[in-house]
Design goal:
- By secondary structure, the protein is of the alpha/beta class.
- The protein folds into four domains: 117 residues, no CATH class; 228 residues, 3-Layer(aba) Sandwich (Rossmann fold); 182 residues, Rossmann fold (3-Layer(aba) Sandwich); 127 residues, no CATH class.
- Strands 3-2-4-5-1-6-7 form a seven-stranded mixed β-sheet, with helices on both faces.
- Helix 20 links the parallel strand 12 and strand 13.
Amino acid sequence: MERNWGHHAGISMATAQHLKTGKHIPQIIGQHHGYSPELNGLVAEDEVFGGMLWQEKRAELVQNIKAAIGLQFPVIENPLQAKAVAGLTTVADWIGSGADFDKPEEPWQLLIKGAVDAAGFVKPDLIIGLGFNDIFGFEPRSIQKLLVQQASEPGTYILEAPMGIGKTEAALFAAYSIMAAGKATGIYFALPTQLTSNKIHDRVNDFLKKILTSECVHRQALLLHSNAWLKEIKMGEDAGPGGNWFSSGKRGILAPFAVGTIDQALMAVMNVKHGFVRAFGLAGKVVILDEVHSYDAYTGTILDKLVETLRALQCTVIILSATLTKERREKFLTHAVSNESYPLLTVNRSDGNSPIESTTTVPAKTVVTVQSSLSSGTALEEALKRSEEGQQVLWIENTVSEAQNTYSILAARADGLGIECGLLHSRYLKADRECLEEYWVTRYGKGNAAQRRECGRILVGTQVLEQSLDIDADFLVTKICPTDMLLQRIGRLWRHSETVRSADSCCEVWILKPEYAHALEHPEKEFGTTAKVYSPYVLLRTLEVWSEITVLVLPDQIRSLIEATYREQTENPLMQKHKDVLKKRQEMLERLALGGISVGTRTLPENKASTRYSEQENVEVLLLNSFRHERDRNGTTVKLQDGSELFLPFQSHPKGNLQQRNLAASFAQQTVHVADYLAPEALPVNNLEWLKGYFYLGDREHDESLLRVAIVSQDGELKSLTGSDASTKYRLSYNQRLGYCSKKK
């Protein structure tokens, strides 16, 4: 069967092998659909491929093509070069399959530049000679100067500095300097979660407008923001509407300038479908890895490989973190380091010399009062009291369900008190999430004195509030979590010195945590669902380190707290038991991660090759208000959650015209990613054919998940397209306040 040898890709691969094109060329030719074909011993002259006669004709065609363009196959020197070339040829195939080349009567050579430009591959036109103040409107702080002065050529730059000190601006200016010197071709700004901040996009947008000439098309910022890139940039086949690369999260990595998730970068080094396209997209760029903290052994192993690969691809890697361990820094650099100062810049240039470590002082210190609470009820009363006084309160839980529950209690209690309550987590439709981010960052962000005076507020959320969002709270309540995450959360407290605060406010955090002795005996019971999110051993070490802390001075204590939590030490028998569990898990995660990046293993579909270890796969869920097939109009009318309607023709437009791209981009805003077991049950793919031109429905031959679709009824319950409950095991619902909810039946 064709599926066993990769269809036409397999034939092309077998032909290249027969023509003795070398080790890598056949693989490159065969991979353009994302996978390496499995020929299983078949060769080009076999009858299944048409026999000797067909092979002779294929060889003749190859010779004619080489003669027409005057070129021979290139010499590929190593697997990494092969990966980059595979990405180049695949993207070229996508561009070449676009509608621009559908008119054989037109000379195709004249169409190439326009098609490449339309696909977004336009060389950025920089304004040379700008200073830091020219771009950002203020003189660099001492910690920013460290990176600005050192960043002159490709290498690895690790900037460890307090939250809110301006690491983003320092990294962006360093990227500008390296691009201006002709040593980089663009920027990929990698954030830790899918809930990337509109404010980060805005900051990068403003930066681009300052460094690019007025004629440069990238001043309009081909970023992953509101799916604008999907609407503007034209590609055919897999990168067009309905293709598996028609999503802002994936395609953005190909743009000269993009803000996206670290996951897309990590998959550049994994044996995952189209991983080589991501490697091609990153080659030669400045890759900024923001909010890099102590990832688990699984993601950390992939991240180490990514940094190594980026350097080999002539990239500049800028790693930003407020809370990095010495051990983690050494793994990134593959060199020993000795300086334990804070803040700290470590530079390892591509010349192979030892890393350079340099430090400076920070302009101000923040003194935080720390209280521990065993009772969430007491913390609820305190949060309500402070918000009644006009304070802006932040409450961070460790799971979405806990955040939804806490928000529901606080919102009910706050009703009638003049307190505004909000909720923010990862399980909102993209359209709703962007609105919520914008709303709450405006109220909790920098320089919003008028909004802060309007009323007291309580914003409840999950880990998305500890990173990327520039929010400034007067009072913080947080569930216990590992020290590095805890410091990140505290970094959202009194973040900006110029913020106007109510007279009664003081810089204080309440940490909801169990007693150490009880948690040591029964961690799963005492930590609850938090023990499923974080290692009980690390949580116990965190409890030990924070047990006597009542006053915290930042940034002075950041380094010592991090190292005290993670340093190797002899444990008592009970703690050793928890440590052994963690060690076994780490070894298992490292093995799994190494399997995922091994080129010798079978190429996996993206849904099977996660960048974060999880017991459950995640799937994409499309939520609609209603739909109706209209045979007389030859299409389907779909009603979205905001009440708007879209009409989808049954026959999708050829090669993704503007109308189809706009529709596909609009649909992308109506999706949410959830764990497979909490998602609506999968429907036969035939039931979703009417969405084929707008969504990637999966590759059944390679066991890829299909899109999940549900209807949101008037009471918020999710229903299958057939009218039954969306799930037999869970009661699923959605509303704009709580987001996606699940409750076991």
